[in-house]
Amino acid sequence: MRGRFFYEVLGMQKELLNKTDIDRTLTRMAHEIIEKNKGTEKLCLVGIQRGGVYLAKRLASKIEEIEKKEIPVGSLDIALYRDDLNMRKKQPVVRRTEVPFEVTDLKIVLVDDVLFTGRSIRAAMDAVIDLGRPAAIQLAVLIDRGHRELPIKADYVGKNIPTSLSENVEVQLKEEGLEDMVILGKVVSED
Amino acid sequence: MLKRKDLLGIKELSVEEINLILDTAAGFKDVLGRDIKKVPTLRGKTAVNLFFEPSTRTRTSFELAAKRLSTDVINFSVPTSSVVKGESLIDTALTVQALGADFIIIRHSSAGVRHLLAKNLRASVINAGDGTNEHPTQALLDAFTIREKKGRIEGLDIAIVGDIIHSRVAKSDIYCLTKLGAKVRVIGPPTLIPKGIEGVGLEVFHNMEEGLKGMDVVMMLRIQMERQGKGFFPSTEEYSKNWGLTPERLSLARDDAIVMHPGPMNRGIEIASEIADGPRSVILDQVTNGLAVRMAVMYLLAGVKE
């Protein structure tokens, strides 16, 4: 939120997706997930804390609407699996991991808001594999902004947005009390 | 974020710091419920258990908490170390630090030791009980257990029963639970309750029946047998008759009251076996939650950069 304030003041932010765009994008992604998996058998969605959790729930309800079948949804916290704990100024907040079903032999679709370096996804895959041995792990992201540092690729992408490293992509969601919106801004040094 | 590299006592912690530890512990409790109860979070770190007083439970809990975080652990216990050869405490601790310890978990009979070490060491010092002063991780796990079972701490009526004057557990619990907004009272014979404790906003009861009425949480303390016959209480039989928790007495508390005990228990003395093993006892939950809380403490202290 602090970042947002700077963009607004400096007039540097640009809206990439509005509420309707986000909804249409998620509807398309829901169809793609069903198509690729030929239905919903053995399918589950696991959102990465926090933005990914809300998106996973939205995708699940869309899939349920289309297929008329319930699909299990979990949330995953990756703080304990990060590779930068020794480098960060602050220890990341540990949130709940709630995957109330057996993941072994399921097809898991990991859901995140923004795909950037790929390091969060690496951590998420390790976290999932500690829960069991899924049949497959797929990846769905609302925004792919490029700049990968690991060999990771999303199976379902809401929107590809080429960015520079000095830019910042922010996904705000109504579940957090904000209006649904994706914003591109310049990173303003917070020092 | 924690504002200190060491966890020496509850007294100096802010409410925000206590809540951060409890919230973080909830995430670690999830880990303990899985088949693979280990995360790679603190791999490459080393913890040393430096215990100058006997302890099995606390030492084992810290050891397992460290292992669950992928931290290596060394147990350094007094009878087998150079301390018996006359090495000074600081030299012992500096030696342990030179071996690469990131965490030094200390239990000592003297209350000043923790500050001495914290000041002289780079490593994070965690107090695992210092004399009759504090036992901060026990209070945190008690608070975590109460919050888990009752959904809150603020506004709860909590009784701590027994030997308050010698109990570091009681002291840390009183700091912790009153900071979090509970209404805490102590119950016990006048010889085992510090004079003037009412002054810090606690109610004092010298009668079990009166004290237990309407409680949400009943926290029993271990009676230390070595105090027997030293003027604190006449005999364990006498103590048990006046201060033991029996089903009849527990019925005076609220219907949904929970019973806690930091262990090890003297069954049939301060607590009846049927209560300890009964549906209202959360004594074993306390043990499990101790792991989650100690993992959270180590995780958060590891993130404090000087």
Describe the structure.
The complex is a heterodimer of chains A (191) and B (306). Chain A is α/β, with parallel strands linked by helices and 191 residues long. Chain A has 4 helices and 8 strands, in the order αβαβαββαββββ. A 5-stranded parallel beta sheet of chain A has the order 3-2-4-5-6. Chain A has a 3-stranded antiparallel beta sheet with strand order 1-8-7. Chain A is globular and about 45 Å long. Chain B has 306 residues and is an alpha/beta fold. In chain B, the strands form 2 sheets. Chain B has a 5-stranded parallel beta sheet with strand order 7-6-5-8-9. In chain B, helix 2 (57-68) links the parallel strand 1 and strand 2 (72-77). Chain B is globular and about 55 Å long. The mean pLDDT of chain B is 92. Chains A and B meet through loops of A and helix 1 and helix 11 of B.
Greatest interface and its residue counts?
A: A-B, 19 and 23 residues
Range of helix content of chain A: 25-40%
Radius of gyration of chain A: 17 Å
**Major beta-sheet overview of chain B:** 5 strands, parallel
Number of strands of chain A: 8
The helix content of chain B, as a percent range, equals: 25-40%
Radius of gyration of chain B: 19 Å
